[in-house]
Design goal:
This is Secretion-regulating guanine nucleotide exchange factor. This protein is α/β, with parallel strands linked by helices. Helices cover about 40% and strands about 15% of the residues. The chain has eleven helices and eight strands. Helix 5 links the parallel strand 5 and strand 6.
Length: about 350
Amino acid sequence: MWKRGIKSKAWNGPQKFRITILLSVILILVLLILLVHDNGRKNILSSGLLKQKWNSFESLVQFNPTMEVLNGTELIWQIPDTPKAVLFLAHGCSGRAVNFWDRSSTCPNCVGLPEERLLVLHALTQKFAVLTISSAGRCWTFGEEMFIVKDIIRWWVEKNKLQKLPLVALGASSGGYFVSVLATQLKFSSITLMIAEGRFDQMDITEDYPPTLFVHMPKDQSRQQKIDENLEILRNKGVDVAEIECMEFPLSSHFFADRIPGIDQTFSTKLFELFQEKGFIDENGYMKNDGRATRWKLALKESNIHLPDKHLAQHIQEELNLAFAYHEIISLHSDQIFKWFESHIS
């Protein structure tokens, strides 16, 4: 019919009109699908954020870590009943092991930053024994420190009789680079590199390199490009790889109360309204700049708004960085991360 119609002069005008209408409808549908898809990526993340609160695991697991200093290196860990795997967590630059754990009688100096603590709680809930170690300096190094950490992990695993359990690792930023190299020294079942492309351009990768998951923020386009390159390098070596993209999301009046222990709804609303007033967020609640470049602390001072606890400034800063989604540790995709780990546990 269509071919015959195209040949017929009598129907040529109306036929062209119908085709034009059809193409217009298809174009509109495609644009709507792309818009929904783009918004969907943000909404899925926001939806996950709303469901996951700082006390989401309260009825399932409690912090009860053990601290130890071994030859000048700080270790903090917790082993759940009947653990099924061991997870080593490596912090980023300026981080410490104390960031992963809430302050308690067994860890009086612990900080419990929002994203780090939720990663640990998720791991403990999934029956992963968790080991955190502090770097010697501001960031991880790849010489002697690599062998020190390797020996500590082996010693700790043997000490706690966990040798038969699979070993996995997650490193963020500097910790991600560190884990990518440590994986050539220790046998991990799989690893996760968070906001880090790894050091694969400086290593001899073999087919027995562990399955690698990249969790990153595409807004950092330079790192995105390097991750794309390293995904290809690893695939070509026969290594199982995957990636999770972390997108920006809007703030809300309950955001800070939901994410940060010690902040109530009243202060959360006050902080959100201040961000609106100062123009730190757009009309939809999205951060206009990275949290590190936002002078929110000065705005608090000028508005005579006082933090419930001065130590919470670091917690708020982390969540602002997270919302902007350029470079920050993230717990929102913990379900997918631990499914990755579990899928490679043999």
